[in-house]
Amino acid sequence: MKRREFLNSSLLAATASLTGLRAAYAVVGTGEVPDVAAVTGDGRAITLKGAEVREFAVAMRGAVLVAGDDGYDKARQVLNPSFDKHPALIAQPTGSADVQTAVRFARAHDLLVAVKCGGHSASGQSTCERGLQIDLSHMRGVRVDPKARRAWVEGGTLLGLVDHECMAHGLATPLGTVSHTGVGGLTLGGGFGRLARRFGLAIDNVESVDIVTADGQLRHASAQENQDLFWAVRGGGGNFGVVTTFEFRLHPMQREVIAGEIAFPFARAKDMLGMWAEYAATAPDELYIDPSLYLPPGGGSGVAYLEVCYSGPAKDAERALAPIRKLGTPSSDGIKTRDYVLVQRANDSSDNRTLGTYLTGGFIPRVPAALVSTIVDNFRGDPGRHTILFCQHCGGAAGRIPENATAFAQRDAVANMMAVAGWTMGAGDPAPHMQATREYWSKLEPFTRGFYINDLPREITARDISSNYRGNLPRLKSVKRQYDPTNLFRLNANVQLG
């Protein structure tokens, strides 16, 4: 029976007290719910009794979905369709109380837990197989106080909404570069974006969080309250709970920026990267430059291009862009005055169901000539693959924060370098594309120091993660031991206590 038909049935009307149970079981009217097969965090198979699932669902104001329910397949979907997982249950909280209910249910049954905001996790950790997915898509909203220059953002909000609401007041906070990215996942890992060199990372602009920890308690963390927890969530990822509200500091900024892409033939790739290598570390804080190399599938010609965003005074823009202009005549030049909110939407994916991707990356503290040569000389395409190498510009204000001021340790990075393979789903075996990217990355990795936990590679090891936190690891372990000693929240750049 379809859920809409069921909702319209007289049987449901006669059992109105069960409307909290949003799963479309035909037997709800009798008070029965089938048992559900699930797994614990350590992979042990368990069975969730139907009566317990029913009790959980009734306690939720938001939906609890199982396979076959309307909305289940949409809820479990993440940006990268190569991760096709099927949670045993999907909880869709509408507020902090629901998140507490979901976390307590997960803890009571030791369930594997995934938390989804925008579903952008490069390693697919915003979904899970036969665990509980906490889908925050029904917790989206922004409240701006322009006088205090603060924004309160619900945990499932996408960054485009934050940009839209804040820029209406001539204010901004540094977030990512794709408007449908979840603020929660982005921020907890650090939060790079077009304004990070000017205003710092997203975590550097967080004033406080409300977070549901593994014991189901809602806690407020700030510089004045639960200070260790506040320190840890700023760069420690989802290790410590589910953030239901972020408080961001805002900055005055004009709405119009100088931004766009400037492209060159692939034969000019070394010249372009060489210019960027010389300029990246000393560029003004208001200038953000991302270099990219791209080879399309089917044997088409490649392209080397720079994505630029200058947010400083318009009168100083050409001086800031002068090193780029010295590269000569480009293939195309789209750099012009643009609306910042629209710039933030420029890289949005219109359809995430058809293109599978594999990404690996790492931070580079400098860009020597040998790295430029290695990038270009080993860049190879394939008829069945989109092949991409790009760098996300770091430094500036984000690089002047002490390494131990937050859990995010990579303050010495000039860029976050990433290699990406993309393929059409169902068009063939993706394994060769992933392997080719790994082999390419093996030549680049010696130039890196650590990696961005929001771009966690699929094959990362616990040792790699521990090393990546550098000297912040002991303090992170202490906070993890206090707030999540059983490692309920493990689908992340996991801080392991063993």
Gyration radius, rounded: 23 Å
Portion in beta strands:
15-25%
Distance between the termini: 48 Å
The CATH architecture of the largest domain comes to: 3-Layer(aba) Sandwich
Helix fraction by DSSP (H/I, runs of at least 4): 25-40%
CATH topology of the largest domain: Vanillyl-alcohol Oxidase, Chain A, domain 3
Poorly predicted residue ranges: 1-30
Please give the CATH class of the largest domain.
Answer: Alpha Beta
Query: What gross morphology would you assign?
Result: globular
Count of strand segments: 21
Tell me the count of domains: 3
Our count of helices gives 16
Q: How can the largest sheet be summarized?
A: 8 strands, antiparallel
What's the average pLDDT? 92
How would you classify the helix and strand content by structural class?
alpha+beta
Structural features:
disordered N terminus, single chain, 498 residues, Vanillyl-alcohol Oxidase, Chain A, domain 3, Uridine Diphospho-n-acetylenolpyruvylglucosamine Reductase, domain 3, Uridine Diphospho-n-acetylenolpyruvylglucosamine Reductase, domain 2, alpha+beta, globular, 8-stranded antiparallel β-sheet
